[in-house]
From TrEMBL:
It is a multi-pass membrane protein. It is an enzyme of class 2 (transferase). It comes from Thermobifida halotolerans. This is Phosphatidate cytidylyltransferase. One of its GO terms (biological process) is CDP-diacylglycerol biosynthetic process. Belongs to the CDS family. PANTHER family: PHOSPHATIDATE CYTIDYLYLTRANSFERASE. Pathway: Phospholipid metabolism; CDP-diacylglycerol biosynthesis; CDP-diacylglycerol from sn-glycerol 3-phosphate: step 3/3; Lipid metabolism. Keywords: Cell membrane, Lipid biosynthesis, Lipid metabolism, Membrane, Nucleotidyltransferase, Phospholipid biosynthesis, Phospholipid metabolism, Transferase, Transmembrane, Transmembrane helix. Its EC number is 2.7.7.41.
Length: 319
C-alpha cells in the first residue's frame, strides 16, 4: 500500500477550535468542536494535536474492502486471483493512459492491455519463463503497433508503452508467482500483511514523531522517523508471518521485512516522482480516501518481485 501518508510528518493544528469547527456560532458549537477534537485527534508526546493528510476512516474502510476481496479470491480458489489482477491491469493502464495523454504521449493501448492480461495468466499457470516470454511478445507488438503513427513521437510513445508494460502488468504478475506455489495463498497473504504493516508503522510513527524530512524535494511529507516505524512494523510482521504461516525461520522473516520496507519506500518515491512529472496530486479516484488504483498499489508493485525473490531463496515451499 502507499507510503505517501505513512511517513508523514505531523503538522500542528493552527487556530484552536476553528480547526475543528462545524460551522456553528454559539457556545454549543464550540463545545462540540472541543469534544470532537479530544475524541478524534491524535496528539504528539508533548500534547500538541496532529492532523493526518487524508480522510483516515474512508481510507481504512476502502483498504479493508480491498483486503476482503483479495482474501475471498485466493482462499477458496486461487486461480480466481488472476481475474482480480487482470482487472487491476485494465484500471491501472487507464490511469497511466490519461496521465501520458496529458503530455501528448500516446500508449499502444491494445497491446498493453492484451499483453498485460496475458502476463497474469502466464505467471500463474506457466511460471517465470512464460511470464518473460509473454512480456517480450507484448513489447514487440507494442513497438509494431506504433509504426502506423509515423516517425514523429515514435520514440517517446514506444518508451511510454514499454514503461507501462513493465511498471504495471509485469510487477503485478509477481504476486501470481507467489500464489502459484503449493503454499502460495499463505505466501501472498504474508506479503500483503508485511507491506500493510509498513504503512501502519510508518503512518503512526510519522504523524506522532516525524521531524526530519527524508526526501523533501520528491515527497516532502516523508520523515526518517516514519521510515523507522515502517522498518519496525515490517520486520515484526515478517518474522511472525513467515514463522506462523510458512513455517520458516524467524531470521528469514526479518530479512523479508527489511527487504519489503526498502522496496515499498522506493516504490512510493517512484510513484511520487511520476505524479510530480505529470503535475498530478493523485493518479485517479478509484477508491474513496485513497486516490487512484496506482496510488494504492505503488509500494506493493515494487515490493512484489522483492518478496517473491526473498521467499523463493530463503523459505522452502511447503507441500
Amino acid at each position: 500500500m502507499s507510503n505517501s501518508d505513512s511517513f508523514e510528518g505531523a503538522t500542528p493544528e493552527r487556530g484552536g477550535d476553528d480547526a475543528f469547527s462545524s460551522g456553528g456560532t454559539g457556545p454549543g458549537a464550540n463545545d462540540s468542536s472541543d469534544a470532537h477534537e479530544k475524541r478524534f485527534t491524535l496528539h504528539k508526546p508533548d500534547g500538541r494535536p496532529v492532523r493526518a493528510g487524508r480522510n483516515l476512516p474512508l481510507a481504512i474502510g476502502s483498504g479493508l474492502a480491498l483486503g476482503a476481496l483479495v482474501y475471498a479470491a485466493i482462499v477458496p480458489y486461487p486461480p480466481a486471483f488472476t481475474l482480480i489482477t487482470s482487472i487491476a491491469v485494465v484500471l491501472g493502464v487507464r490511469e497511466l493512459r490519461r496521465a501520458f495523454a496529458s503530455r501528448g504521449v500516446h500508449l499502444a493501448l491494445i497491446p498493453i492491455v492484451a499483453g498485460g492480461v496475458a502476463m497474469q495468466a502466464a505467471a500463474f499457470f506457466g511460471g517465470p519463463l512464460w511470464l518473460v516470454g509473454t512480456l517480450a511478445v507484448a513489447s514487440i507488438l507494442g513497438l509494431v503497433w506504433r509504426l502506423r503513427g509515423g516517425a514523429e513521437g515514435y520514440v517517446q510513445d514506444s518508451t511510454a508503452t514499454l514503461f507501462t508494460l513493465v511498471y504495471l502488468p509485469l510487477l503485478l504478475s509477481t504476486w501470481l508467482l507467489l500464489l502459484a506455489e503449493p503454499d502460495g495463498r499463505w505466501r501472498l497473504i504474508a506479503f500483503i500483511v508485511v507491506t500493510i504493516s509498513s504503512d501502519i508503522g510508518g503512518y503512526f510513527a510519522g504523524i506522532l514523531f516525524g521531524r526530519h524530512k527524508m526526501a523533501p524535494v520528491i515527497s516532502p511529507n516523508k520523515t526518517w522517523e516514519g521510515f523507522a516505524g515502517s522498518v519496525l512494523g515490517c520486520m515484526l510482521a515478517g518474522a511472525l508471518t513467515v514463522h506462523l504461516m510458512l513455517d520458516g525461520p524467524i531470521w528469514a522473516g526479518l530479512v523479508l521485512g527489511a527487504a519489503v520496507v526498502l522496496a515499498a519506500t522506493v516504490g512510493d518515491l517512484i510513484e511520487s516522482l511520476i505524479k510530480r512529472d505529470f503535475g498530478l496530486k493523485d493518479m485517479g479516484s478509484f477508491m474513496p480516501g485513497h486516490g487512484g488504483l496506482l496510488d494504492r498499489v505503488d509500494s506493493l508493485l515494487i515490493a512484489g518481485p522483492v518478496a517473491w525473490a526473498v521467499l523463493s531463496l530463503l523459505v522452502p515451499v511447503a507441500g
